[in-house]
Each structure stands twice: as structure tokens, then as C-alpha cells.
Write a structure and sequence with these properties.
It is built from one helix and 13 strands, in the order ββββαβββββββββ. With 221 residues, the chain is mostly beta strands. The protein folds into two domains: 88 residues, NigD-like N-terminal OB domain (OB fold (Dihydrolipoamide Acetyltransferase, E2P), Beta Barrel); 114 residues, Immunoglobulin-like (Sandwich), CATH 2.60.40.2370. It has a five-stranded mixed sheet with strand order 1-9-10-12-13, with no helix packed on it. A five-stranded mixed barrel has the order 2-3-4-6-5. The chain has a three-stranded antiparallel sheet with strand order 7-8-11, with no helix packed on it. A hairpin with a 2-residue loop joins strand 7 and strand 8.
């Protein structure tokens, strides 16, 4: 089953300097990364986990709370893959916290084979970047859209004779017109395939792009 969604631009939620309520407001030296947030037993954001293996307790900034009108609640004791806008700040006690300014959506789901009654749709996209980090295959795409409906997901298309895994980007335009190029962020978790992926295996990602057509990106695992 693919995810059908209303495609919208990623919301960065950062307040502008011009909207600051006082002249002493300092524009933050933030970083924007693919990362994970971990929630506590009440569903509150507790830690920011970066792809280099480091973990930091989270402090929700004024910008973040104002954007959401309140502290958001997620599923308890859960890890979420999100586009994270943050600043690492020393507390002065040899500790570092992550000041969180914004969160953006990343499509992150485990690829599965198509059912017998499903068709593989590969409507074209632009591929901006692709990389491996933190146990994920990550990429940034651009989709021509006008806020209509697209069905998007990842399909496990691994041939039976392949030593490794192959994932294909599924994209079906359901009710939309090609208009503005809008960014789409994706992360394929590799941990669920740890039993079938071994060192030296091949990892392939297949995507149909406007520039090069059906393209295969290959990585040694």
C-alpha cells in the first residue's frame, strides 16, 4: 500500500528577524539535518539523535512553541525521522542541549513488494541529492505539483538472484498538474533489512527523473 498525500511545501516554521518582538533578538545559527527525535513516556520530545550517533536533550525554543501554539505531543516512547532545524548550545556545565526551532516532514517507510493487483507507477521527479547516513538511505527530490494528490512510497523490487536489496521510488500523480517544483524529503530505514543485507552486498535505488529517465543509484553496503 502506498501513501496518498496532499503534497505541500515543507514548512520550516522559522520566524523572521523582522518579526522579532525586541531589538535584541539574535537570529540563530541553526543547522538543518535529517535526524530522529525520541519521545518520552508522555509523548513529549525528549532527545535529538543525529546520524553521527550523537544524542542531545532537546530544549523547545520560543520560535518552535509559537509556531505550534503549544508543545506538540507524539506517540510515547517512539522514534521519528524528521527534518530538524536546531542549534547545539553549551549549558556551561560540560553539557550540550539541542535548541529546536522547527521540524519538517520526511517520508520514511519500510519498502515492501507490490501486491499482485498493484501496478508500479514511476511518474518523473527531479533528484537533488542522495546519500547514506545513520542507517538510512536519504534523498531530496523535487516534484512538479500544485498542491494536488500524489501517491508516494518505496517498493522492494529486489530480484531473487541479487546479493543485496533494490528499492524503487513509487510516484503516481492522482489529481494534480505539473506546476511548481516542490521539495520532498525521504529516508528509507535499512535496519529492517539487517538480516538480508551483509557487508559487501549491493544497495540499489531506482528513480525515474526528468533529466535522465529511469536511473539506478548503486552503493556498496
Amino acid at each position: 500500500m502506498r501513501a496518498t498525500l496532499l503534497l505541500l511545501p515543507i514548512l520550516t516554521l522559522l520566524s523572521s528577524c523582522e518579526d522579532a518582538v525586541d531589538d535584541d533578538y539574535r537570529y540563530p545559527s541553526v543547522r538543518t539535518d535529517f535526524a530522529c527525535i525520541a519521545t518520552d513516556d508522555k509523548g513529549k520530545i525528549e532527545h535529538l539523535l543525529l546520524d553521527d550517533g550523537s544524542s542531545y536533550p532537546v530544549h523547545l525554543t520560543r520560535d518552535f512553541l509559537e509556531a505550534y501554539d503549544d508543545e506538540p505531543t507524539y506517540k510515547r516512547d517512539t522514534l521519528y525521522r524528521l527534518l530538524s532545524v536546531y542549534e547545539l548550545v553549551s549549558t556551561g556545565q560540560n553539557d550540550t542541549v539541542a535548541d529546536l526551532y522547527a521540524l519538517g516532514n520526511i517520508i520514511s517507510q519500510v519498502p515492501t513488494p507490490l501486491r499482485e493487483d498493484e501496478e508500479l507507477h514511476q511518474d518523473p521527479v527531479y533528484l537533488q541529492s542522495i546519500w547514506l547516513s545513520g542507517g538510512y538511505l536519504n534523498f531530496v527530490l523535487e516534484v512538479k505539483a500544485l498542491n494536488g494528490k500524489h501517491s508516494i512510497g518505496f517498493v522492494d523490487t529486489t530480484p531473487e538472484t541479487m546479493q543485496g536489496k533494490e528499492f524503487t521510488f513509487y510516484h503516481r500523480v492522482i489529481d494534480d498538474v505539473e506546476s511548481y517544483r516542490q521539495k520532498l524529503y525521504g529516508s528509507i530505514p535499512l535496519v529492517p533489512f539487517k538480516e538480508s543485507l551483509r557487508q559487501g552486498d549491493t544497495l540499489r535505488f531506482v528513480v525515474n527523473t526528468y533529466d535522465e529517465g529511469n536511473t539506478v543509484y548503486t552503493y556498496p553496503f
